[in-house]
Write a structure and sequence with these properties.
Blueprint: H1 2-34, H2 39-51, H3 54-79, H4 87-104, H5 109-138, H6 142-161, H7 189-192, H8 201-218, H9 220-230, H10 232-237, H11 242-269, H12 281-291, H13 296-313, H14 324-358
Helix pairs in contact: 1-14, 2-13, 3-8, 3-11, 3-12, 3-13, 4-5, 4-6, 4-11, 4-12, 5-6, 5-11, 8-9, 12-13
């Protein structure tokens, strides 16, 4: 019975996602027509920019990796009844910590890489856990606190960029991390050609999704967090320590976003630079989480779709299409997902009310 329910939920989620993507692409075609562009030609460039070469597919995976992890961070918090708007700031704390440990420490790769990864996750986890502590102790809404913490993370990272031990002279960036802290590999270059920053990030994503899925759905602690997400009052009545559960949830969510930052530095950018505005990895993660229905597995496919459209969408500019059209399509896809989901929920509540009246 339980398996049938899970299969039904999976089919419903899949249909909802496909329908939302269709609406987004259809609305995008209308926008292209109104702006004087050929939607067939534009979409041909989009899909050819994703699937026509192995190099393009590899870049899609590379671009998708950090937003899948930030999406997983947001999805985990959602599952426990929390709205983690702070994935962006936690991501930046992860990039900052990974850069510091990657530049300052000089260790063998087998030791250096785990230390950088764990350090970034710990720092970002504490950053996220602080928002959980504020909510659990003083009732501070996590949306407000995480938004404020995003700005603190941005300016904290900018401050560290200019420290003498990190700043690369003549630039507004830090030194590159040491080779021993990088997670790149070269054995795919025979297929993709040189210049593609192939790294172990996507493997880390798969491992992360497996661990989080097991923790949420197969462990007692995960059940407690989900119980808090379903009904806080019932969870409290059942004896669950609400404060500890909230802090633990936000710590894990922060650690996942910090892992995204570490992977980005260790496999792609190798340094951080001064920023006047955030890079939107965390905010895109919110959209990825929604499109993936807050499911760890769904987040992978949603993240790959977003990464593909971001990378392939740049190719649309070769036929004169503004890149902003891709953002319009993203917006419509998310709106379609939310509206359809709300409509389904309203119908479910209405049917339940009618059945109660009949009884």
């Amino acid at each position: 019975m339980k398996e049938k329910i899970n299969n039904s939920k999976f089919r419903a989620t899949l249909i909802l996602t496909i329908r939302s993507i269709f609406f987004g692409l259809a609305f995008g075609a209308i926008v292209l027509l109104l702006s004087g562009h050929d939607p067939i030609l534009a979409y041909e460039k989009l899909f050819m920019g994703i699937f026509s070469k192995p190099k393009y597919l590899c870049w899609v995976v590379i671009k998708s990796t950090p937003i899948i992890l930030t999406g997983l961070s947001v999805a985990f918090a959602f599952r426990t009844g929390l709205f983690n708007i702070g994935a962006e700031g936690q991501f930046m704390i992860g990039t900052l910590t990974a850069t510091i440990l990657g530049v300052v420490l000089d260790l063998p790769p087998a030791i250096h890489i785990p230390i950088v990864v764990m350090g970034a996750m710990l720092a970002a986890g504490l950053f996220g856990g602080f928002a959980g502590w504020l909510k659990g102790t003083y009732g501070v809404n996590e949306v407000i606190s995480t938004i404020m913490l995003n700005w603190i993370a941005l300016y904290l990272a900018n401050y560290f960029v200019y420290l003498p031990m990190l700043k690369n002279p003549g630039t507004e960036s830090t030194f590159d991390i040491r080779e021993s802290a990088k997670i790149n590999f070269s054995w795919l270059e025979t297929i993709t050609g040189p210049g593609v920053k192939n790294n172990w990030g996507f493997l880390i994503v798969i491992i992360g999704v497996i661990i989080i899925s097991f923790y949420l759905f197969k462990t007692t602690k995960g059940f407690e967090l989900r119980a808090v997400g379903y009904n806080k009052h019932a969870a409290k009545y059942a004896g669950i320590d609400m404060k500890r559960a909230i802090i633990r949830s936000m710590f894990i969510a922060g650690a996942l976003a910090g892992l995204a930052g570490a992977v980005q530095v260790m496999g792609v950018s190798y340094h951080i630079s001064k920023l006047s505005i955030s890079e939107n990895y965390g905010f895109t993660g919110i959209a990825v989480s929604l499109l993936g229905s807050n499911s760890p597995v769904g987040v992978i496919f949603a993240g790959l779709m977003f990464g593909g459209m971001q990378y392939g969408g740049a190719k649309m500019q070769f036929v004169g299409v503004p890149s902003e059209v891709i953002n319009i399509i993203f917006g419509i896809i998310i709106l379609s997902t939310t509206i359809t989901d709300m409509s389904w929920f309203s119908l479910k509540v209405k049917n339940k009310f009618i059945k109660q009246r009949e009884v």
